[in-house]
Input
Amino acid sequence: MIAHVIANGATLVSKAICRLQAERRWVVAGTPVQNSLEDLGPLLEFLKASPFDNKKTFLTEIVKPARDGKPEGLIRLKALMGVISLRRTRKILAVPDTLEIMRRLQFNSAEERAYSDTRGKASEAVTTNNDGFVLMKRITKLRRTCNHALLEPKVGVDISHLTLLWNPGNAQDAYFTMLDNDAAKCSVCGRNLRLFFPEDAYRSSYHELYKCLHLQCNHCIVGLPIIKMENVGCTHVPNCPSHQVRNLPPDTSTVALNQSGFSDDLDPEQMPTKIRALMDDICESECGEKKSVSRSTNIAKRTLIVNRDSVVYSCWTTTLDLIEAYMSKLEINCIKVDGSISEKEKHTRLNNFQKTSNIQVLLISYGAMRG
Output
């Protein structure tokens, strides 16, 4: 069994798999603990690692002591993992060292003006506004400006009014803003909800968001009756009003680029600096020399080819949409994998990238940040 399939013990798939009868059980995991020790719970349940396959026992004997800083929690965890796990370290696998190259880019004059204007508004919001929604929105826009300063979507969500009227729609918009700023962390267990819940579980996993921004994840909501955790609800008396929120609204997928507010007629000559630098890294001329996609070059009249496969990762979904659109303009064959497609379609696209020679670039979204 692949661990991520059962990582969220609250899903019906995980519950069904854990009930399967078998003489031997294996779980393959690259990172069995991603956010907290509780990530091990569903894996132990599947393995029938008694008595820790019982959720309450696992939390009481290992998770809670470790969280409270008591040594017996980690001692028990090490003893347990030593018995049930087989590890293949980097040394055994002979994995090559990672080479990281940081490229510092310079805005053009128009982008610099746009960034300075956005930064000024963000600074003003920090000093004059106590509304957390407004602050997060300004910071998100500042970060997004670095990707495509002059190509902001024509439509957007103004969240300055959200704390005045707390309804399901505003709560969902507020949650999106928290995701964009990597601030969607469960107030009970500390999980980072942008990282923990697989994209395929977005539609089935709901969380509870209170007006004061106290957030309870689906994992804790489902587990509360079993483990009787404290601090249910927010810390205010009486509790602030709350609504259910999701990483993606039901029946909603990542919209196409021309539906997200960008112009349909993108001009490659006006490509944002950051995306232009990406093109520089993956494109070469027909003669095999490094080709700079500079503004002095008429891109539309040059043939760009890629002599090796490239994979582009980003948590900014709209930026990936924009990259995909520019690659289409430049006739660079690429394929995108994000949370809007099914697991079956993901496997199909990844297989095509591996086996189809004319697909040169793979775009992968590893988060739900809209920018």
